[in-house]
Amino acid sequence: MSLQGKAVVFTDRQRVEVHEVRLPAPSADDVVIDVEISWISNGTESSFLRGERTAGDTPYAEGHPWPFPIVAGYQKVGTVLQVGSAVSAFKPGDRVFATISKVEGMYEPYGGHVSPAVTAADQVWKLPQDADPLDYSGLVLAQVGYNCGERPPIREGSRALVIGDGLVGHWAAQTLHHRGSRVTVLGRHEDRMRLLPETIGHLRSGQQDTGTELRRLAEAQGLDILVDTVGDMDAVTANLPLLAHDSHFVSAGFYGNRGLVDIQALRDKEITLHAPAGWNKRRMDAALEGIRQGWLQTGKLVTHRFPVDRAAEAWELIVGRHEPYLGVVLEWRQP
């Protein structure tokens, strides 16, 4: 028998609404969760909202059906309400993180910003005891940054340049730094870069002396790692020449139809290309442990909280960019 829930639904391009939705009856392998906080993926979700992609990393092409209506998102925390007969790892009352959950009547049969959340048990993680739920509510996205930062090998004295001061850029930089690399973030927003740990350097793109500083950095020590977290091929093209021989390029941005890399240009310096995507259990476990240990910093990056009924305002902020923001979350439990 179907259940009823509340969800954030993209009903069309640039249209965000909060709807009652149908949820499938939980199966033996499912966990049902009362959601407390869900964390918006600024880049991916806004890209869907603008109609730039139709699924995952698939860019929209003329003739494709628009992927609406669709339940947005893919990450949240909450409390377990019930578990299926085949589930032994969780019990009612556990505080957990969950990825995508099941819905009915949408373009895709799953989504993130929905409560209660009927979720396959293999997409649920139990939170550490006494954990601040906010810190873990963006775990998939934190894992994306961790994935970027764990890909390249780190040698003694390694230097890394991370393009992008968004959430993935922060977490990629934190991971590289934790592994022993000297890290510089190239960003556009001074307010975001001020949230970086003091041990991570930063440069603001567009400033007159930034290019000179980057060249000086590369000439002095050599750049061993370049990470693009925003899908900026112009920035990639400008900074690839700064990489040393036998270096590493990590590409994690969404490029649409512009993601063309000159393989010969990489071969000239024997540069290794990494193209991380998605999430898996090993990386999710590692990111969760990084948050628990405190070196992967998450909650401090949240700048805005919205009650779920005001979800449209959250995306208006993200898409319209009418004030500074970084981490944006939705709160589901009303006071």
Explain how this protein is built.
It is a single chain. The chain has 335 residues and is of the alpha/beta class. It folds into two domains: 3-138 and 298-331, Medium-chain alcohol dehydrogenases, catalytic domain (Quinone Oxidoreductase, Chain A, domain 1, Alpha-Beta Complex); 146-274, NAD(P)-binding Rossmann-like Domain (Rossmann fold). Helix content is 26%, strand content 31%. Strands 3, 7, 8, 12, 13, 20 and 21 form a seven-stranded mixed β-sheet that branches. Helix 3 crosses helix 4 (167-178) and helix 3 (139-150) packs across helix 9. The longest helix is centred in the C-terminal third of the chain and has 13 residues, at 281-293. The model has no long low-confidence stretch (mean pLDDT 93).
